[in-house]
Give the backbone structure.
Amino acid sequence: MTPLSPAELLIYLRSRCAIDEDDGCWLWTGAMHRNGIPSLRLHGVDCCGRNARAAAYFWSGGVRIAGRVFARPPCDERCIRPEHQRYVTRREAMALAQAAGRLSAGRRHAAAVIAVRRRGRTIDDERVAAMRERYAQTSNAALVAREFGVHPSYAHRICTYRARAEGNVFAGLAG
Ligand SMILES: [Zn+2]
């Protein structure tokens, strides 16, 4: 038997979808993985990790990019139409899922850490100085983190001048 070409596989995939006439979505009618990814298994065919979204995307000529993943498409989690996919970095996928309120506890924690790191960049100089003053009194970066609502590792880096050291003559000497 001649193996099917990507174009033929794509036609097969589309045949397993309900086509939404309004927005053009290809809504997968097959099984879904527990995490909401359309599940694809074909005997003797590499199904891109049993991911129908990925399969449709790559079989239609989409190019693989290291480190990218398929986020839930904005239209419908069952949609596998290649043009509707969001093939993004893990961080972008996490941000998208977080924005939609869809993250596991572990992922939520990781996303919160990233958000806090981002927020950390907006801590103004006075606050940085106040954090260092408090640290000088307590030698307890975890306490400073709690009091100032900053992620512990970032607070520690600020307190020890590993972060926000610009303009400080003692930068790099402490800690
Ligand atoms: Zn769609």
